[in-house]
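This follows on from our talk about sequence and fold. Please put the record directly below this note.
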Amino acid sequence: MRTISALLVSFAMLVSCSAGNQELLLGDMQPETYRPLLEGRRIALLSNQTGLAGTTADAPHVLDVMLGEGLDVQAVFSPEHGFRGTADAGEHVGSSVDPGTGVEILSLYGGKTDIHSPEVLDRFDVLVVDIQDVGLRFYTYYVTMFKLMDACAAAGKKVVIFDRPNPNGSYVDGPILDMDYASGVGRLPIPIVHGMTLGELARMIVGEGWMDTKEVPEDFLSVVPCRNYTHQTRYELPVNPSPNLKDMKAVYLYPSTCFFEGTTVSLGRGTDVPFEIYGHPDMTGCTFTFTPESVPGAKNPPLLGQLCRGVDLRDLDNETIIAGGVNLSYVIDAYNKMGRPEDFFRNGRFFDLLAGNGWIRQMIKDGATSEDLKKAWAPDVEQFLSQRKPYLLYEE
């Protein structure tokens, strides 16, 4: 295991043990802690609309706070969905200038920003990451962070993570990614639900030597941890992390219903409740119906304008959803109610990329239950729980 910089780790362990009912403080709410790491340096910031220096929707954006602290923010890197978080999934977003601050925004998702180019890397000395992830292997924000970390390590730049809670951080579930299936929706050998904050995951990336750049200096990575947080803390996101995760129920169901992206079934894109319902015109035995429409954040959703028969999951209790973890019973239910059609998984490739392997799809086709699948990936969960321990900053 690679030795990594542990700046602020002992402090994190101290405060995480006293979470109790004390006020939760995010990393970006602690300028007295992060200012010494950034003063006198040119800064690039990876963030979007979720980068609020507070736990309410009216909190100031971290960009404004950093500039107010007199820090030299040269540029902002924006991930999928753009800096304001309004673009469709996978939509190309161009670079621009933030009208409020005049800071240039460099799009990393579909834009023309080459993070390895000298023109980009020469603009800053340290990268700050402040973005709200939801703790899933196929959610792309951590992939963007990983790529930037690798570019920074190769160029001798430092990285500082302003840590945030993981709303799916109370458990670990799903198979570890088979790296033969690495893609933009799965880049690291981690389970579907890894249960780590981005700060913890960044520590693991360095410690396990997962970056292409292998010679990483001791002081490459610093994490400003949350205070009064544990992995069992229920954290309600103040703003949507992306256009189609509209509330906490969607965030909790996402580990399970996202698999419909690799099938012919609609998961509700083009409705008010994406990821909380599923259906298809050919599903039988269903009384619930919906029709996907073109809406902001889902301009051309699957099954646009078609009446879908399906299942409404909104009555499920959030704690029940969390306890169920990665639950493929929904996919299996839709598969059976459509008569197990040959084209249910389309060509199968995208479903396999989401699953991180080819055997889950095959087991479903062979008649496996969701319980069978959990038993099959249980050894991966146990392996990862042990593997991640050295990198945790908060009580489990």
In short: Residues 1-19, 85-93 have pLDDT under 50 and may be disordered.
